[in-house]
Design a protein that fits this description.
This protein is mainly alpha-helical. The protein is built from 15 helices and no strands. Belongs to the CBP3 family.
């Protein structure tokens, strides 16, 4: 799935001014150290010191305590300062805006979709989500998290039937425009249409995989595996099985330590995703369509989660 990222990274090295080198380097992290690549290039194993082991123990305690709270509605309280209310006009102004179709169903849906997408961007662009799950903030990572949270909202909207599907289309158009702007900002100014088509394929591929992972007949670990491929793995490879991990442990102890850490973050994100999905299901239609809801705050959690070191 992520083989397309290699082509994007290669292209970014060839074009663009020198001032964009840092941004292009972030884009090139898509070519980073997946399990298969690291295993094939590692030569001399070295031991994990006691400091790292202490870090792992602290990490396990912190992550294992996260995202177990009982799911609840994400709707904002009526007196919340974060609410976005529809403008109310009176008299001649109300008549004019009505003639301009400001109060039409389509106009209201577009305004609501704008608010919903701002909620998604707020969750994805804040440092907290990267700190909690120890993710590097690169173009690929931000894109992966955007797709994940878009899927959470679209999945909830489908529960509202045709009205939700129509609203989801407005939301997708906003997402598509935002991604195009982000790609352009990352340095891709030529052949932009081609890259957007590749990103669209990745988007729909991820959506299908997430949907399948939450089917009643899906295995419990399926969502974790999908998150590993779409978010944590740099090359889209699958997580090694138990026998693979034992082989890594025997021959490449630093890599084994790295994979164990990745597994803990993956499990925590799986609980986060399942909980947010249930919370959105409990969120009222009015709050959903007006955008008057907020994803679970990760600010407090991030201050207690240690960062991974390279």
């Amino acid at each position: 799935m992520f083989s397309r990222w290699s082509r994007a990274a290669t292209y970014l090295y060839r074009v663009g001014p020198q001032k964009d080198v840092v941004i292009r380097r972030d884009f090139c992290s898509l070519l980073g150290r997946g399990y298969s690549k690291v295993a094939s290039t590692a030569e001399v194993p070295f031991a994990v010191d006691s400091g790292e082991k202490g870090h792992a123990n602290t990490l396990e305690v912190n992550l294992n305590k996260m995202f177990w709270a009982k799911p609840c509605s994400l709707a904002l309280a009526a007196d919340s300062p974060l609410r976005v209310e529809e403008p109310k006009y009176e008299g001649i102004r109300h008549i004019i805006f009505k003639l301009l179709l400001f109060y039409s169903k389509q106009s209201k849906s577009i305004r609501g979709a704008n608010v919903v997408y701002r909620r998604i961007v707020s969750q994805v662009d804040k440092p907290a989500i990267y700190n909690v799950f120890s993710l590097e903030k690169t173009f690929k990572m931000t894109f992966s998290l955007l797709v994940l949270h878009m899927w959470l909202c679209l999945r909830r909207l489908k529960q509202e039937g045709n009205e939700g599907v129509e609203f989801g289309q407005y939301l997708y158009e906003l997402y598509n425009h935002d991604v195009e702007m982000r790609v352009s900002k990352a340095g891709v100014n030529l052949l932009l249409t081609r890259w957007m088509k590749d990103l669209e394929k990745i988007f729909y591929g991820n959506i299908v995989a997430y949907d399948a992972a939450l089917l009643p007949e899906a295995k419990q670990e399926e969502l974790e595996n999908v998150l590993w491929r779409n978010v944590f793995s740099d090359d889209g490879s699958s997580i090694p099985d138990d026998s693979g991990l034992r082989a890594v442990q025997a021959n490449f102890s630093p890599l084994f330590y790295f994979l164990k850490l990745e597994g803990k973050y993956k499990s925590a994100m799986s609980r986060y995703v399942r909980r947010e999905s249930t919370c959105l299901s409990l969120t009222e239609k009015e709050a959903l369509f007006s955008g008057n809801f907020m994803f679970t705050s990760l600010e407090n959690s991030s201050s207690h989660t240690p960062k991974r070191t390279a």
